[in-house]
Amino acid sequence: EIVMTQSPATLSVSPGERATLSCRASQSISSNLAWYQQKPGQAPRLLIYGASTRATGIPATFSGSGSGTEFTLTISSLQSEDFAVYYCQQYNNWPYTFGQGTKLEIK
Amino acid sequence: VQLVETGGGLIQPGGSLTLSCAASGFTVSYNYMSWVRQAPGKGLEWVSVVYSSGTTRYADSVKGRFTISRDISENTLYLQMNSLRAEDTAVYYCARIHDYGHSDYWGQGTLVTVSS
């Protein structure tokens, strides 16, 4: 099973600033990585797939990068609605494992 | 595209429950479909998948106790859960898996609580 490790567990950032979230895979997953956003009481929402492709309707303030084992989600200018928990998921091998999440909170 | 889960509730340890996920806007049997769960205050855990071919896979934590299936005529995905344990307590989401492998549509989730 591929282990996905996200860092940091919690990130405190001020509105308007940039946030950088990291995700590491225990073995190479090529670009088979997705990022999801989850707000309290809601289902996860797809943000990025293929490591860097924004899903439909996702604003350009969200960008993904990386390949192999190291990946990054960047939110260029934080809006109030962006404060949430973010998960990465690999879909290179079954089971399609998730990271433990990064909570993005208002500083 | 819409996914609507039903069937959650309070169940005693050792009991059984069946979750349903009614799909609209696409055909369940043409897609990979999965169940993902989230224990209270915890992260996401993949539970099971059914391929368009009908092949199924399960997480080790539920293998032998849970069964994923689908009804073509009802365009609905199911998760039959037997021998339930306290650690199965979670919100259960169904999700469609895109051809590339990511989950592009999710239901709103249904809460299963296993407790005496």
Explain how this protein is built:
The complex is a heterodimer of chains A (107) and B (116). Chain A contains no helices and ten strands. With 116 residues, chain B is mainly beta. Chain B contains no helices and eleven strands. In chain B, strands 2, 4, 5, 6, 9, 10 and 11 form a seven-stranded mixed beta sheet that branches. Chain B is globular and about 40 Å long. The mean pLDDT of chain B is 96. At the A-B interface, β4 and β5 of A face β5 and β10 of B.
What count of helical segments of chain A does DSSP give?
Answer: 0
Average pLDDT figure of chain A: 96
Give the C-alpha Rg of chain B. Answer: 13 Å
Mean pLDDT of chain B: 96
Q: What is the strand content of chain A?
A: over 45%
The tally of strands of chain B reads: 11
Characteristics:
heterodimer; A: 107 residues; mainly beta; 6-stranded mixed sheet; 4-stranded antiparallel sheet; B: 116 residues
